[in-house]
Each structure stands twice: as structure tokens, then as C-alpha cells.
Design brief:
Length: about 400
């Protein structure tokens, strides 16, 4: 099975994670995919294959050299985003993309257009995989899984390419910020690793946001509208008031590069009860703390206005900027850069406007930069995957393994 067939088969598994679950994995369907991958790794002939009860899958490609070589790891996540359905994905290959609009669904007039997504222009002449316009594709991160598995197959088929022990792992629940929480770093046994979870060719990231999630519960008081004066407390109106107090220029849709933001993820309610969910993001640690303090002050002010206990706020840190853990071992970034350059790929070192499992893993003692997997426009029906990009991700993995072995010569 080649890499494209592998990927097309993987996206047939619905692996959407669920934010409100209290289990690991958050959805049973991720375990279905994990068990399939376990069987696939057995067929390939990897060693030390282990799938734990939480849906974390580990395996080893043993060293083929008679010398000490650092053990390096490659990681990808199995879940897809809760933002968009991943059920009944219907991928289609557009052969030799001509640069024009791609009609994803004729009946519903769903179009993937370079006028809206100019990044398409970078892939003219290439074969790309698209959706039918009704689900996400799942290249985030099944392209990463396909690249890792295919790299292991390639290395087994080419024993002339020397490498040390290579560890691979596939985990659940990355999209809800929990992918690394139960990752067994000790069992993984690597000196460092790479997540294969980035976008366009050449992307290499060792900086990410500091991240927190905020949950807000608002308790109102329902009174007949004819007698409500000085009695009613409208929870859903307080929710809209709270949102109006937030900085309106510090949103995902108004920021870029190193600019942080508040993101209103959800809001629902009625007169008696309302709930809100925010994402808080900033690359700078001081600004990250200030953002949490700002939201706390907003809530305190509303409680002073409407009565203590009206608005309840819970903030949980999710992950931190991995830069401080990567910089002391920066050679792990240099190796990835050299691997790309050896393949004629121009490295694009940049900060992630988001996070990966590598951020949490770096703070658990496993330095873990992030490398491209090839997909574009994640988390929605306009997601697409240039096939050559996924193939280059696979080759980058192989080249990293070769470089690590050669460094000890």
C-alpha cells in the first residue's frame, strides 16, 4: 500500500474528538482507528507494538547499525477536530490542478476557489486531495500518520539506509488539548521526537502559544416580563454584555504572527442560565498572564453589578510555549532543517498560531518540534492535501533518521 492509498483509507475512519467527554480517548471511535493501526504496524513488521487502554499506540523500528545512535521519535494524532464533521468523508483526487475553481459539490454550489484561498495557487500542476464540501478531509493529522507509517515501510525496504532505533506513536485527543496528557514519555524512550502535524511544505515550528481555556457559567433569575422591573436577571443578556467588554481587536480573525487573542468558542443560554467558552492565547508569557487577569476582572465587575455568584469563571491552562524547552537542545531543530535542505525543501521556521502535542511533551521532558504534514485549510470542508507535500513529509522523516545515524560516524 502506497502513501496515497494509506491516507485515503485512514480518512474513512471517523475519529472526531469531543470536548465535553470525561474519558480518554474522548470518543470510542478513535479506539477503532487505533486498533486498525495496531494491526497495520504488525503487518509491516514493527517491534514493541503496544496499544494502551487510553488509545495511545507505540511501536519501534529497530536499529540496523552496530553502533550507538540516539533514539528519535515521530508522533501524530488520530483525532480530527470537533469544529467540523469527520464522518463519511468523501475524498477526491484532482489530477494536475489547473489553477481554477474546484467545484466540491455541484448541487449545493460549494466551491474551493483561489480567489478565497489564494494558497491554492502554490499547487498548480499538482495532484491534490479535496473533500466533497460537507466534511473536513482529515489531513490534520492523518497525513502525518500516513507519512510516518510510509517512512517506516520505506526504511524496512531499504536496509542500506542506516538508522538507529526509531520510535513512533499515535495518540488521541490532540484537537481538544489532551493529546499529551496520558502520553507515556518513559515508555516511548526517546531522546527527542518530532510531531508530524504541520501544514505546508517546509513548515518547522518550535514556538507555540501559551494556551488556556475559560468556562463561564451565568446564573440569572426568571420573572414574568410584566413584573420584571428590578427583579429579573437575564443570564443570556449578561453573557452578551460580557462579550461586549472583551477587546474587539484581539480576536483570531483580527490578529496574526505573534499577536495573541481571546476567542469566543461557544455561547448559549436563556434567562435563567447561560454558558460561555473562551480560548485564551499568547506567545508571550507575561501577556498570557495579563489576559487571564483581564478576564477575571471582567467577571469580578459583573458580579459587583449583578450580585456575587452570578458569574462563575474557571480557567485551566492547556499548554505553554515550548520554545524554552527546545532552545537548550536546538540541535533537534538544526537536524530537521538540514534534512529539509538535503531534500531541496526550503525550511519555513515559524511560530505556531496554535499548539501541538509537542508543546506539552516538551514540558514532560521530551523535546518535540513540529514538522509539516502537507495539509492546508484544516478544520473545515475547504481542507485540501497536495499529494507531493505529504510525500515530502515522508521523505523528511527518512532523512532525519539517516542524519541522526550519520552524526555518530
Amino acid at each position: 500500500m502506497e502513501i496515497v492509498d494509506r491516507f485515503l483509507h485512514y480518512v474513512g475512519f471517523d475519529t472526531q474528538s469531543a470536548e465535553d467527554a470525561d474519558t480518554t480517548p474522548s470518543t470510542d471511535k478513535q479506539l477503532v482507528f487505533a486498533r486498525y493501526l495496531e494491526e497495520e504496524l504488525e503487518r509491516i513488521g514493527l517491534d514493541d507494538i503496544y496499544l494502551d487502554d487510553n488509545g495511545y499506540l507505540y511501536a519501534t523500528l529497530p536499529s540496523n547499525v552496530d553502533k550507538k545512535v540516539p533514539t528519535v521519535g515521530f508522533i501524530a494524532h488520530m483525532d480530527t477536530s470537533p469544529d467540523c464533521s469527520g464522518k463519511d468523508v468523501k475524498p477526491r483526487i484532482v489530477t494536475g490542478y489547473d489553477g481554477n475553481d474546484i467545484c466540491l459539490d455541484t448541487k449545493d454550489n460549494i466551491v474551493l476557489s483561489p480567489s478565497v484561498f489564494p494558497e491554492l495557487e502554490d499547487y498548480v500542476g499538482q495532484d491534490i486531495i479535496v473533500t466533497d464540501g460537507h466534511t473536513l478531509l482529515g489531513a490534520d493529522d492523518k497525513a502525518g500518520i500516513a507519512a510516518i507509517v510510509q517512512a517506516m515501510v520505506w526504511l524496512k525496504e531499504h536496509p542500506e539506509v542506516e538508522h538507529g532505533d526509531i520510535r513512533i506513536a499515535f495518540n488521541p485527543d490532540e484537537e481538544i488539548g489532551l493529546g499529551a496528557h496520558k502520553f507515556d514519555v518513559e515508555r516511548f524512550g526517546c531522546e527527542w521526537a518530532y510531531t508530524i502535524d504541520g501544514g505546508a511544505v517546509g513548515e518547522l515550528e518550535y514556538e507555540c502559544f501559551n494556551a488556556a481555556g475559560a468556562k463561564i457559567a451565568i446564573k440569572g433569575k426568571s420573572v414574568h416580563t410584566g413584573y420584571a422591573k428590578d427583579k429579573m436577571v437575564n443570564a443570556v443578556r449578561i453573557a452578551t454584555e460580557l462579550q461586549g467588554l472583551m477587546p474587539q481587536t484581539e480576536l483570531p480573525e483580527t490578529t496574526e504572527n505573534y499577536q495573541g487573542f481571546f476567542h469566543l468558542l461557544s455561547m448559549e443560554g436563556n434567562v435563567e442560565n447561560a454558558s460561555m467558552s473562551y480560548l485564551i492565547r499568547d506567545h508571550d508569557t507575561r501577556r498570557f498572564q495579563e489576559r487571564k487577569e483581564f478576564l477575571t476582572k471582567v467577571v469580578d465587575g459583573l458580579n459587583q453589578k449583578y450580585g456575587q455568584g452570578t458569574v462563575l469563571l474557571t480557567i485551566n491552562d492547556q499548554y505553554y510555549n515550548m520554545r524554552e524547552k527546545i532552545e537548550p537542545v536546538f540541535y533537534v531543530v538544526d537536524i530537521a532543517i538540514k534534512a529539509m535542505e538535503n531534500l531541496g525543501i526550503s525550511p519555513k521556521v515559524q511560530a505556531i498560531r496554535g499548539g501541538t502535542d509537542g508543546a506539552q511533551l516538551s514540558f514532560k521532558g521530551l523535546p518535540c518540534p513540529n514538522i509539516f504534514a502537507g495539509g492546508i485549510n484544516f478544520h473545515g470542508p475547504y481542507e485540501f492535501l497536495p499529494i507531493p507535500s505529504m510525500e515530502k513529509a515522508m521523505k523528511t522523516i527518512v532523512e532525519i533518521c539517516r542524519i541522526v545515524a550519520a552524526y555518530n560516524d
